[in-house]
């Protein structure tokens, strides 16, 4: 793709409302706005969660090398300022070198973190590790609810509707390949990290796995650096749907020097407002695991599981055989119903733990 001016209209000719337009075509205006709502919740919640993770990793690198007085909130603000700078780039294509670096960092992070986790596990007293459920019965139930949201969040990294329709033709075939590859990588990397973390530390493992690691320090620092680089690109992927939504309504497509300058100023204003909001929430409530859960529950679960099942029932090719058609319909209704329940209970669990954390820690607590 040809270079695009940093002040030009963000997404050019591509339609960046794939899911929303599909929702509208199938279910009308309520479909459009419901998809828009879930999409914005997923994007915003994801960026709050990874903003906290980035600040935590930056602080960890700082603490390993210097013994100064900077807090987690300072690093969250540093990361926010850097993302605001990247946000001034016009579209996802202008971030291709950033995304390429982030891809290599993702592989580096997963490989390093899994290796160091196993190393830590082997050097611990295995008799001291408990795999039992902690707390009373009600606490265990809410932890299970919370975990459902976290699991749903892990699938969200393969759900990128804002850029799926920019892939080359045949779009359906290539999209299927892309999503299949994404899910395979998730299972082989992040799920293996989750399994390794639970094996190494049991029920005491931290939501952000690197916080549980202790040795060797240089390898842990390397994993934190990989995490920050990876997150810097991930943040941009998920803030772009929100930017695009406002750009549709606020930026002019007229090509002239005066219009381009106004577009630049308007874009700087709403990207700054977005970054201030995300940074403020992340700094005030730096509870990584809770935001991962609530984002997965009420953001990614509807978009990844509920809406596709309902969309297939409405627009998919049904088998001609009556019995087989009934089986397909019942299966998709069951998927939509089950994951609707998962979304509700996951949200309940996440909100409960956010409330508990707020009672335990003060706002802007240096975790």
From TrEMBL:
A Gene Ontology BP annotation from the UniProt entry: amino acid transmembrane transport
Highest taxon above the source species: Eukaryota
Keywords, ordered alphabetically: Amino-acid transport, Membrane, Transmembrane, Transmembrane helix, Transport
Organism: Musa acuminata subsp. malaccensis
Protein name: Amino acid transporter transmembrane domain-containing protein
InterPro entries in alphabetical order: AA_transpt_TM
Keyword Protein biosynthesis: no
GO CC annotation, single: membrane
Keyword Flavoprotein: no
Domain Amino acid transporter transmembrane: 4-348
Compartment annotation: Membrane
GO molecular function: amino acid transmembrane transporter activity
Predominant cellular place of this UniProt entry's protein: membrane
Transmembrane domains' residue ranges: 68-86, 98-121, 181-201, 221-243, 264-285, 291-313, 333-355
């Amino acid at each position: 793709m040809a270079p695009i001016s940093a002040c030009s209209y963000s997404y050019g000719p591509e339609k960046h409302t794939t899911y929303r337009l599909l929702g509208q075509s199938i279910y009308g205006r309520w479909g459009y706005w419901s998809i828009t709502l879930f999409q914005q919740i997923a994007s915003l919640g994801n960026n709050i969660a990874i903003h906290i993770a980035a600040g935590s990793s930056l602080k960890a690198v700082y603490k390993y090398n210097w013994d100064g007085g900077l807090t987690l909130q300072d690093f969250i603000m540093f990361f926010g300022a850097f993302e605001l700078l990247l946000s001034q780039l016009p579209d996802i294509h202008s971030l291709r070198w950033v995304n390429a670096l982030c891809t290599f960092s993702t592989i580096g992070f997963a490989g390093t973190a899994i290796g160091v986790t196993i190393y830590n596990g082997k050097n611990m007293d295995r008799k001291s590790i408990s795999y039992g459920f902690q707390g009373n019965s009600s606490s265990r139930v809410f932890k299970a609810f919370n975990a459902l949201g976290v699991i749903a969040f892990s699938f969200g990294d393969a759900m990128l509707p804002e850029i799926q329709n920019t892939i080359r033709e045949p779009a359906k075939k290539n999209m299927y390949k892309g999503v299949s590859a994404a899910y395979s990588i998730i299972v082989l990397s992040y799920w293996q990290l989750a399994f390794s973390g639970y094996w190494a530390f049991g029920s005491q493992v931290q939501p952000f796995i690197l916080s549980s690691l202790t040795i060797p320090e240089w390898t842990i620092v390397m994993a934190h650096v990989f995490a920050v680089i990876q997150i810097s690109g991930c943040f941009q992927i998920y803030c772009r749907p929100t930017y695009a939504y406002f750009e549709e309504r606020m930026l002019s497509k007229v090509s002239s020097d005066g219009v381009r300058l106004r577009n630049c100023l308007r874009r700087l204003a709403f990207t700054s407002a977005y970054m201030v909001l995300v940074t403020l929430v992340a700094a005030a409530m730096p509870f990584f695991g809770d935001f991962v859960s609530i984002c997965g529950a009420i953001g990614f679960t509807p978009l990844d599981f509920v809406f596709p099942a309902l969309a297939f029932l409405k627009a998919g090719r049904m088998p001609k055989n009556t019995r087989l058609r009934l089986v397909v319909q019942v299966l998709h209704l069951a998927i939509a119903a089950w994951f609707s329940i998962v979304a509700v209970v996951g949200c309940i669990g996440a909100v409960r733990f956010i409330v508990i954390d707020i009672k335990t820690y003060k706002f802007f607590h240096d975790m």
